[in-house]
Design goal:
Blueprint lengths: L6 E8 L5 H9 L5 E8 L9 E3 L6 H18 L7 H13 L4 E5 L1 H13 L4 E5 L11 H10 L5 E4 L2 H9 L7 E3 L18 E5 L8 H12 L5 E5 L5 H11 L5 E5 L3 H10 L2 E4 L14 H8 L3 E5 L14 E4 L4 H12 L5 H14 L2 H21 L2
Parallel strand pairs: 1-2, 1-4, 2-3, 4-5, 5-6, 6-7, 8-9, 8-11, 9-10, 11-12, 12-13
Helix pairs in contact: 7-8, 7-11, 10-12
């Protein structure tokens, strides 16, 4: 049997239901023998894991020490996130008492918290880059400085897409032991159902960075004279304006707005949907996605994907085989791509190709094993003194 490791998962907030990739690690990595180090505890611990909340109430001595400690850490490490004082001592004791053998920090910004401390405790430490931490975070020279300081302290890094690794490298942030491992999807739960002809689905918060108006206007243009229906799943400040826009465009009867739905309800929609629409864009702060989980789920469900040349999406969608992509903000091109799918006399071949892609590249059980195997390899090298 392969060696298992007691693993500390480091995250910002716990528990967040939508962070399926992090929750999967907490529940399943190395047989689920995990503990959680979080910045904030949200009051729900569904996996019944030992917790350390690092932002819990500071002692009086730490409050007095905070300005000096955080200032010194910012100057020397590029970040004030490092634990200090009595809280640091308490954290080290907790890691020791929990018999932690490996630390996995979800997001590079969380690795900043623990990398130096892990070195001092001689614990292998890894980080997972997923999106904001390797895009918007890099607009800060201070964050770039802190990442460069942190990288040599890590045993390895994972990223959900090559795009994010390349983005880090453009800023002089790299690691010799870097691996692309997408978050993945449960291909046993997300399976193609009986597809409704002409059905389209868009999922996401109704906010500017998700560009729902572009998706809606593009669909309206493509749907003219064609049998098509778009379901919008999501809530947010642009929901009511989008409803008004649908009426203004004359497609209110062809568009359903469900509001926010539970993840399993989204899955049910994906199973019967032919075409998945996601017009991802880079926001004004430089924030990008890594490789959207929603697109991996859509592929697994056999949906043809119409999306943008954004972040890691081209690493998942093959143009003309599993979907179509256009440049960000290209509303006319997006409409043309939707129309192209709707005009296909037989969409079954692309649906089968989408499913095959998910099975080959995004099976989360396979990807979890890949992460575990890499951690095992690194720890074996450490143990051998190489």
């Amino acid at each position: 049997m392969s060696r298992q490791f007691k693993t500390c998962i480091v995250t910002s907030d716990y528990h967040v239901p939508g962070e399926t990739f992090i929750n999967r690690h907490i529940e399943h990595i190395f047989g689920g023998d995990t503990v959680v180090l979080c910045g904030r505890f949200n009051g729900s611990n569904p996996y019944d894991k030992p917790l350390f909340e690092r932002r819990s109430k500071l002692s009086l001595s730490d409050k007095v020490l905070a300005p000096v400690a955080m200032g010194w850490n910012s100057l020397t490490e590029g970040t004030g996130r490092l634990p200090f004082g009595a809280n640091r001592t308490r954290l080290m004791q907790w890691l020791h008492d929990q018999k932690v053998e490996v630390i996995l920090a979800e997001f590079g910004t969380q690795a900043l918290v623990v990398a130096k401390l892990a070195n001092e405790m001689n614990l292998p430490v890894f980080s997972y880059f997923r999106g904001t931490d390797a895009s918007r975070a890099l607009t800060s020279p201070q964050r770039v400085k802190s990442y460069r300081k942190m990288m040599p302290r890590l045993d390895g890094i994972f990223s959900v897409s090559q795009f994010l690794l390349d983005n880090l490298a453009k800023h002089g942030v790299s690691h010799p032991n870097a691996h692309v491992v997408p978050s993945g999807v449960d291909v046993r739960r997300f399976v193609p159902g009986e597809k409704v002809p002409g059905s389209c689905l868009a999922v996401g918060r109704m906010v500017d960075k998700k560009a729902p108006q572009i998706t809606l206007r593009a669909f309206a243009a493509a749907a003219k004279g064609r049998e098509a229906h778009l379901t919008f799943i999501g809530d947010g400040p642009l929901l009511e304006p989008c409803k008004a826009l649908a009426a203004e465009l004359g497609v209110a009867a062809q568009v359903t707005f469900t509001g926010a739905l539970p993840h399993d309800a989204v899955r049910q929609h994906l199973l019967t949907t032919e075409t998945f629409l996601q017009h991802s864009i880079t926001d004004r702060n430089g924030n990008t996605e890594g490789l959207p989980t929603a697109i991996q789920e859509a592929l697994a469900a056999g949906c043809i994907t119409v999306s943008t040349l954004h972040a890691g999406i081209p690493e998942a969608v093959t143009e003309g085989e599993t979907g179509f992509m256009v440049p960000e903000w290209d509303e006319e091109g997006f409409a043309g791509a939707i129309a192209k799918v709707l005009d296909l006399p037989d969409r079954a071949a692309m649906s089968r190709a989408a499913r095959a892609t998910a099975e080959a590249k995004f099976d989360n059980a396979v990807l979890l094993n890949k992460v575990e195997d890499e951690i095992r390899r690194c720890v074996a090298l450490r143990d051998s003194g190489v």
